[in-house]
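We both want to read discrete structure tokens more fluently, so let's practise on a single case. Would you supply a protein for us yourself, any chain you care to pick? Would you write everything just below, so we can both look at the same thing?
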Amino acid sequence: MQRLALLSRAFASVIPRFLGAFVLALAMLAVAASGQAQEAWFETTELNPGLPPPPETLDRGTPMAALESFIYLTDNGHYSDAAHILDLSDLPQADQAVIGTERAFQLSVLMERKVVVPWRKLADRPDGWLSGSAEDNDTGRVRRSLLIDRLELGGHDVPLRLNRIKPGEDAEPVWVFSRQSIDNIPHLHAQYGPTELETMLPDWLRIRAFWGMYLWEVLFLPLLLVGALMAGWFAFGIMRRLGEVAKRRWMRFMLRSFRWPAAIVLCATIIGTATSRVLVVSGFIDAVLSPILLIAYVTAGTLAIVFTFDEIFDRISPNNAYELADPMNAHMRSIATTIAAARKGVIVIAVLVASGVILVSSNADNTLGLSLLASAGAVTIVLGFAAREVLGNILASIQIALNRSARIGDQLIFEGHFCTVERIHFTYVQLLNWNGTRLIVPVSYFVSDAFENWSIEDHAMVRPIILTLSQNADVAALRRVFFNLLAQEDPNDVKPMDKAKVHVLEQDAFGIKVRFELPTDNAATFWDIECRVREELLAAAARMEKEDDVRMLPPPPRIWANRNTASLEAIPAAG
């Protein structure tokens, strides 16, 4: 009973709390629903009192209807009627009729030439409601202001907006271009309107061709592109020529580093200036050219940085493979490999930063910006699949640079070839073969295959010289000759001498095999020394055989053949 009483009291204390929370949640939902259901607008006492009454056919009830009405009226020359779709509140009432007609004309020019209308974001409902994904900020809510486009003016972007205005308590809300947008129209028209050169063009060049472009654009843009490319090619050729004849090293450095960036910047500047100052192109062309010019400028800056660092690394990095192969230059090999890794790091970082700048600089409200951001994942997957081999090689080259399994200048045996590592590129390793030829090996294949590195840590080794001698050969005499030959070599190349040995390995019917162990401390010279010592040993054996009348070398094969034949003839016939 006591437990029941305690439970009942606890239950009685908890119920009011749950009820209070439930009532509060219902109230919040009701407020949110009422706020969501009510229509939103900007309130004003009157709208454009200086204009005559609007035509009865004028539809400003929805964003799409207002914009369609403006385009229809201006295309047919009814600029005074189109002025009713502008908020002229900042103009004196007496000037609204005249200035409003002028602003409607100027806005129509901007709409034709520079504005890309986002029709998918324009609702055909009075409250501006758009249906769509809950993750999109433009859908699923009441709106009273819509962004049509952004135009650059005075170093910053100014918006062109449609606002929902309620002119008085008894009037219905209407959609019109905002007063802030109307105030900027004269300046925007001065910047993007027809230039003096365009007004001087004949009428037949100013007719529409296709895709909303004028005929002069269809003829002008290909010529402009060819001219800009020729100017860029000419600038590149001049800088290359100046770089070849320049006497000062810093001048050659600058000219080599900025040949491509200067050519790209000049080409992009000519196109950008011609399409914005000489003859202003339409909005469709501008929407395509703007991101291309942005990518061109960012690419030029990235190339300038990469080429500058590349020239600096070339200056400070030892690049002579033969000098790096010297055993005394182990620290130089490490430095050269570290610089190669730093060069790759600079390139990767520059590309990542350039990609980020392009994505950030792309207007998120622009179709290009949305497409780039929306398709980033798909593009990454496609590019990753298509370039998986290239990416694998890049990662493998970074792996070599980090673990230093093969440094620039290291001498190694790769698939039977005695090579020196000459370069470690992003996608391949360049190996200098002993005969002067180059082996180009993909990095991923190079790191996946086994190789002997004769330059890592202890570069000393023992090279065996195995000779087959006669049964009666004087091994002790050849041993003395061998040590005398080693004493005549450079002590820096032949050491340590305590590892110089002569051993008889085996004996058979053809003779004995003697192993002369040649210690060497230099992988770059051991081959010549080994061949030279072998030749001298054979010459000494032949000389001893002639002078001492003691056979040192095995008899020629024909002697063995004659002896075998004689032995067979001596065997009596069976039976």
Summary: Confidence is low (pLDDT under 50) at residues 1-8, 27-38, 568-575. The first helix runs from residue 2 to 37.
